[in-house]
Amino acid sequence: MARLLGTLTAGMGAVTAAGVAAAASGVRAAIGGTPDQAALLGSPQFRDGAFRNLVQPQWLPDGSGREVVRELLSGRGSRRPTGSVPLVEPDAYAPTDGLHLTWYGHASSLVELDGARVLLDPVWGERASPSRLVGPKRLHPVPHRLADLPALDAVVVSHDHYDHLDMSTVRTLARTQRAPFVVPLGVGAHLRAWGVPDSRIIELDWGDETTIDDLRIVATPAQHFSGRAFSRNNTLWASWVIATPAHRVFYSGDTGYCEAFNDIGERHGPFDVTLVQVGAYASSWPDIHMTPEEGVATHLDVRGQLLVPVHWATFNLAPHSWTDPVDRVWKEAKALDVSLAVPKPGQRIAVAAPPPVDGWWQTLT
């Protein structure tokens, strides 16, 4: 019996050790690659070994640790929906003229403009984390299987944080799609580490652009930071202009409110629709994530017509309540007479005829 118990214990220990090793290996893979600094030195944004914002963001402006703790401890009960988030299973995608948009939750969206399809910041993973065991977990399922997406013309990534760039999602898209990945400088290192060939990676600096038939994609400034492990700011972050001769779309990515948006509006606007980050804000990081009111201001700065708020509803990443971003953006949009659409995850909308805002989220508070 003692010998049997010893054998079983040793076996269980080996299984546990193997599981820990596998988990550690998975985390290492999910972190991604390391950019070659020599390839980044030509960027005006890359100085002293790191990428820089146009204006240095401010952290903990009040110097008040007590205020940060109070924020984190308040409102915990309302940081997740009280019921199931309503999802819309998209119909089969047919080639279409005009401009359509499908929001899948958080920052993941499909933009269809004049026959071209662009997937933004696709994250289909269960956690915004390199680990399958810890980290912010989804508050609702993905409304559409990744493998069932229509043929894409481009996959655009704003920056390398885990809630915007997911290894498993990238690997699936690399296998099931032929579209190039259009990313900020340095982010290509992660894609290469995950098996995406160089021929499908387009890395852009702010002000650079690429064209795919009639589709034009421009990397524009944002005020944020990057990093997936211990290194920080060794890859660039960006907002994006996506345009055809007939339509223009602006996607903010993650950003603090900054003067660059006025310039983007003057150079590239007006925009038929803007997808603007409105969630994951806190007083301890005021300059790297916008508040809902700043999101509306950004929409106006870039000269947008229809505003679609993103970066909310899917992951708990800040101390505010689950509905605070969308409640506040709706209030501000009404006050400033801004056209607003708040689709359910998976709901495909026509930008020229958006559905009225119905407050669908308010039954889940």
In short:
This protein has 365 residues and is α/β, with parallel strands linked by helices. The chain is built from seven helices and 16 strands. The N terminus is likely disordered.
CATH class: Alpha Beta
Structural class: alpha/beta
Mean pLDDT: 90
Number of strands: 16
Report low-confidence residues grouped into runs of 5 or more: 1-23
Determine the number of helices (DSSP H or I, runs of at least 4 residues). 7
Strand order of the largest sheet: 8-7-6-5-4-3-16
- Radius of gyration, rounded? 21 Å
Q: What's the order of the H and E elements?
A: HEEHEEEEHEHEEEEEHEHEHEE
Envelope shape? globular
What's the structural domain tally? 1
Organism: Saccharomonospora amisosensis
Keywords: Signal
Protein name: L-ascorbate metabolism protein UlaG (Beta-lactamase superfamily)
Signal peptide: 1-29
